[in-house]
Every structure is written in C-alpha cells, then in structure tokens.
Amino acid sequence: MNDNAFLNTLAAVEQPDAGVRRYLDACTSHITHDDAQLLERFVHRGDEAPLIVCSNRDYGWFVHVATEVADLQEEVKRALAAGLSEHFTGLLRHAHSLDCNWVLLDRDAAVLDALPTFDW
C-alpha cells in the first residue's frame, strides 16, 4: 500500500460513518446510587427507556451519548425527567465534549478528575 492509499484509508476510519465510535471509560463512582438504580431499571425497559442503556453485567452500563448538540439536549431533558441527576447529565455532556458516542460506566474504571464522585 502506498502512502496516499494509507492516508486515504486512515481518513476513512476517522469519519463517523466508517463505523468506529469513541466511548468515555468512567468509574461508576461518578454517578449517584439513585442514578445506578435507574440505569438498571432502564436496561430492563428496552424501547420504553428514556435513554439507550446496556448492561455491562455486574460491572456497570453502556449509555448512549448523542452526537448532535440538539439531540444531546433532548437526551439530557429525558434523563432529568426520568429522575437522573444533574451529575449524570454532566457526565453525558462531558463525554459529548470529548466527541464520545457512549459512556462506559465501570466499577473498575479510572476516576476522572474533571467529574465529581459519590460513595455508595
């Protein structure tokens, strides 16, 4: 593969349509206990849940983060209306600011200095 072909391939991978997405890996201590309970309920509600939430077994959750600002604002509104905390929506906003499409909340992930933590 010549240099131009390699650069074109690399550019294609960096495009969102290439199927590659980023996620923020964050410790579950960045959400409240009430947030955690709600996320677990959302996993079992499927299409009726206000956010796209997938279980990471006993370790945490994957939560979708909208790519467009207007869509993120709608996600934040739905999250707050469902009872999730301002801290949780701050986590979504932080992930969005880093161009992440998902947040992986994992009990073993690193604690991020930019976000508050909670003992539960």
Structure description:
With 120 residues, the protein is an alpha+beta fold. The protein starts with a helix and ends in a 14-residue tail after the last strand. Strands 1-4-3-2 form a 4-stranded mixed β-sheet, covered by helices on one side. It is built from 4 helices and 4 strands, in the order αβαββααβ. The mean pLDDT is 88.
Q: How many independent structural domains?
A: 1
| Large-scale geometry | globular
Strand segment tally: 4
Total number of helical segments? 4
- The average pLDDT score comes to 88
Beta-strand portion reads 15-25%
SSE arrangement, N to C: HEHEEHHE
Biggest sheet details: 4 strands, mixed
Helix content: 40-55%
Poorly predicted spans: none
Main traits of this protein?
4 strands, alpha+beta, 42% helix
Q: What is the gist of this entry?
A:
The protein is α+β, with helices and mostly antiparallel strands. The protein has helices spanning 3-14, 33-45, 69-81, 86-97; strands at residues 23-27, 53-55, 60-64, 102-106. A four-stranded mixed beta sheet has the order 1-4-3-2, with helices on one face.
